[in-house]
Amino acid sequence: MYRYDIGATVLALARADGGRASAVRRPVSAVVAAPVVRQAQRNTCESAALEILLATVGREVGQARLQRALPRSGPLDPRGSGAGRTWGDPDRGYVGRPDGGGVAGGFGVYPAPVRATAARLGVQLDDLSGGSPGRVYGALRAGRAVMAWIGLSDGPFGEWRSPAGRRVRVNFGEHTVVLHGIRRDGSVLVSNPLEGTRERWSPAEFEELWGRLGRRALATRA
Questions:
Q1: CA distances from 25 to 8, 10, 11, 53, 144 (A)
Q2: 171 CB contacts (<8 Å, ≥6 apart)?
Q3: What is the tens place of the pLDDT at every residue in 118-154?
Q4: Model pTM score
Q5: Among 32, 93, 114, 140, which is most exposed with the fewest C-beta within 10 angstroms?
Q6: Rounded distance, CA 36 to CA 49, Å?
């Protein structure tokens, strides 16, 4: 659905200097076809969300294959304790156990390794991380699906050092979903792999959950 941008249309007419100019339309809503996928294991929301995201651009790849394709970082379980505890770096690869077993129950992975995995499969994704909510909404209005990292809860938080010595601080409520549409009222359509559901969130709901994970997101390209 579109709306006519009167201001932009007037400007286009002025620039035409007496010639013809087309009315300028802006999208106000859009929906991308997206499947419903339920994550197969406790900590495979990222591979399930990536399966959904790839499907929106016609690339059918199952989450089991995607999980195997993700690079890994660090040992399966944390080593040591206190300030000397070491584990993986989710900015470098998947951390922990997909099934949630082990000492810490596993964790997950952040955008960079997911984006690299998609690229190896021939799909280029744009990193919207750290941007404004408006960038996400703009991508949706342009017909581009968005994989977003959200916090199901505001904590608990954990901290450790990566094998390279980098400080890693995480929210164990980390989760990923795929936004595949936006309505005229600004609400977003969500394919949530946690239980394999379709949902509709208000802008306020999305922005609160997204902010808990540092505004991380990947979008398909037009």
A1: 9, 12, 13, 27, 18
A2: 151, 153, 154, 155, 156, 157, 212, 213
A3: 999 999 999 999 999 999 999 999 999 999 999 999 9
A4: 0.88
A5: 93
A6: 10
CA atoms of 200 and 217, how far apart (whole Å): 18
According to DSSP, the residues that pair with 195 across neighbouring strands are none
Domain boundaries of the chain, sorted by first residue: 1-27, 32-220
DSSP assignment of the chain = -EEE-HHHHHHHHHHHTTS--PPPEEE--EE--------SSTT-HHHHHHHHHHHTTT----HHHHHHHS-B-S-SS-BS-GGG-B---TTTSB-S-TT--SSS------HHHHHHHHHHTT--EEE-TT--HHHHHHHHHTT--EEEEEESSS--EEEEE-TTS-EEEEETTEEEEEEEEE-TTS-EEEEETTTTEEEEE-HHHHHHHHHTTTS-EEEE--
| Token pair in block for residue 171 | 């929210």
Place of tokens 């959950």: 209
